[in-house]
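Schema walkthrough. Field components (list of strings):
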Amino acid sequence: MINTPAIALTELRKSFRGPGNTTINAVDGISLTVAPGEVVAFLGPNGAGKTTTLDMLLGLTTPDSGTVHVYGTSPREATSNGRIAAVLQNGGLHPDFTVAETVEIVASLHGRLDDVGTVMYATGLTDLAGRKVSRCSGGEQQRIKFALATLPDPDLLVLDEPTAGMDVDARRAFWSTMRADAANGRTVLFATHYLEEADAFADRIVLIAGGRIVADGPTADIRNMAGRRVVSAIVDDADLTELTRVVPGVEIIERRGGRTYLAAPDSDVLARALFNTPRAREVEIAGHNLEDAFLTLTAGATRAEH
Ligand code: ADP
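Field assembly_structure (string):
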């Protein structure tokens, strides 16, 4: 059993009916294996298919096709064994209970009443113990959900946009708690649309756009890929053909509004070649803005609709 992956998704697909009787392929062939102990960011823009994938992983939605295994079993089995727990975006908390009551109820279900104080302290809820859930901010409610998810001491924790609604300080505090938790060997898969968040916390980034995985690798590799300089210019087809011949590894990322966006392993070589191309005009070099680069990386993957 040692080599059994924490998560094994094979060719997962799920589509929904969209407006005007169109079909939205929310998840369009996702295969993913996560080893025990990995901390993986599922990173992609809004609408990429992250929540739909996580819902299938948790057994909340049935795939149209493909398979889901969690520690070698079905999601349902993994959930009932307490091996998997989740912090989801919506619902789940009773507004009239206090924070302490909420944590105590779930703790009693898992026979962990003795640990309530420790869990509340670890998740920064001690000072909120007597407050009604309805009076907690969005960020505080996320922390309550996190506390509840850790109570069964799951092997795999799945978090969907866990810091949505938190300010910068709350976000930082949340991740430091998470980091401490993951250091104890828990497998964590979290969805986010913040590249910085994925970069700061995950060992591995799985980049998703248009229902497909567009990149998957160690965080440092994805950061380098996303952080590469993009050089753009107005350039004709003949010059472009010549450029692809003389610049090693040059890649055409996109052609938009008459402008061609290019990248190469050595962006200086690429820029120099463009400046030396007589008919290339308005050469621009984009800096290391991670968010822009992330958008460029995911821009090519458009969802198939029919
Ligand atoms: P993400 O979590 O990355 O923001 P989602 O998985 O929520 O993306 O959504 C992927 C796509 O599927 C989006 O286009 C969304 O509008 C669509 N979608 C998700 N759930 C439904 C649903 N229940 N009915 C119709 N369309 C849906």
